[in-house]
């Protein structure tokens, strides 16, 4: 699997195993990553829910 390498522009808000919840600092764009692959992208509430479901 590809190793996750964060852009200096992207803030990592949470990590759990291979999963990461990130936010782009210039706008309200949140993403859930599994390794180096985005598995979901959208608003904060929905992405926090997806991250929680994937990491439980």
Describe this structure in words.
- The chain is an alpha+beta fold.
- It has one domain.
- It has one helix at residues 44-55; strands spanning 11-16, 19-24, 29-34, 37-42.
- It has a 4-stranded antiparallel sheet, with helices on one face.
The backbone outline, from C-alpha atoms, is globular
Q: Name the helix and strand elements from N-terminus to C-terminus, one letter apiece.
A: EEEEH
Strand content: 35-45%
What is the radius of gyration?
10 Å
* Overall strand count: 4
Total number of helices: 1
Keywords:
single chain, 56 residues, alpha+beta, 4-stranded antiparallel sheet, 1 helix, 21% helix, globular
Q: Briefly, what is this?
A:
This protein has 56 residues and is of the alpha+beta class.
Topology:
Elements (H helix, E strand, L loop, with lengths): L10 E6 L2 E6 L4 E6 L2 E6 L1 H12 L1
Antiparallel strand pairs: 1-2, 2-3, 3-4
